[in-house]
Fold this protein.
Amino acid sequence: MKTSDFYYDLPQELIAQDPLEDRSSSRLMHLDKLTGELEHTDFKHIVRYLKPGDCLVINDTKVIPARLYGHKKDTGALIEILLLKRKENDIWECLVKPGKKARPGAVISFGDGILTGEILDVVEEGNRLIQFHYEGIFEEILDQLGEMPLPPYITHKLEDKNRYQTVYAKNEGSAAAPTAGLHFTEELLAQVRSMGVNIAHVTLHVGLGTFRPVKVDDVESHHMHSEFYVVEEDQAKLINDTKKQGGRVISVGTTSCRTLESATSEDGILHAGSGWTEIFIYPGYRFKMIDGLITNFHLPESTLLMLVSALAGKEKIMHAYEEAVKERYRFFSFGDAMFIQ
């Protein structure tokens, strides 16, 4: 299976640069994964496709303002860093630009010294381990100094940080938003609950690897990035009970999907716990837990496009994407949505 099999032509102007004023007014394409039939509607009408006894599974991770700008203490050179993973205490793995000015031992000052970071080591892919020093609470300092780490294809400045968070974001730790959830409002979630649909939550902290292009020709040779997930005991029970009672488990986003498929054993039972997942889902994968998926439109040749192709079939997905381009859907993080069921 070739990476180029997942290429499609996307006009630049269809990449959404700004969130819509009303989250739920984005468009929704419904794809029947058995027949390939497509329907076009608005996201607020997603309730038409849900049934009492279903369970939506959301990812309650919260994006941290992980992009920081500072200066090297000795030379004053401008340094940009992106927090990727908290390793221990105040040591983080970070992406640093320009790398040549960020050698071990260098100290970077942020916000006139409110926060400083010492580079300890260079690790895989040229990332740096940085030990941070500060007084007070790290998250509060980050909120004061940091910027939202928007994906590279978004060039507009985000005026309101909360628009790159889901309304149910709770557990801080992501470098990118679980964007399928951005379409939900509190009112729409209340409507979903009132019709007898359960809402379960899991946590997967999204890494920037989610935007990393597949650089190998052969899909199976690609190595997935690692992300931390948590499934709580009561949530696992709710999801397992849904399956037992004949309800459908519908994942809100590829991150919830990857969490569920990582934590579900071959017998179809979801297990509570936490850990790191490198699961790579591409056509040929047999899904153990999810029955449906709410998702955005993904980049050409990306692992996320491969995941949705595994669920609905590559031909059906590529046809749906052709239609989305023709119908002028908005693509990627702030774009429109697709419901595969």
Summary: The first strand starts at residue 27 and ends at 31. The longest helix spans residues 314-326. The chain has a mean pLDDT of 95.
